[in-house]
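Bumping my old thread because nobody answered last time. Still need a sequence for this structure:
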């Protein structure tokens, strides 16, 4: 299980990087544009996915 948890940690880091990149792209233009709104929606989904992965890591680590 430690191997799976380690891979999930890598995925969580990748999701964090993707969320940051999405916010940067969204912030580089007009804050009222549709692109900025889309970027925020994508970032929120990425953060939710990261949290789910972090919960899975915690579950795998229980009892060790």
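Sorry it took so long. Here it is:
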């Amino acid at each position: 299980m430690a191997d799976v948890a380690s891979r999930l940690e890598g995925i969580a880091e990748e999701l964090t990087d993707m969320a940051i990149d999405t916010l940067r792209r969204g912030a580089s233009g007009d804050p009222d544009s549709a692109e900025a709104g889309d970027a925020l929606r994508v970032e929120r989904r990425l953060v939710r996915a990261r949290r789910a992965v972090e919960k899975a890591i915690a579950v795998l680590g229980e009892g060790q």
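DSSP finds two helices and no strands in the chain. Let me know if any region looks off to you.
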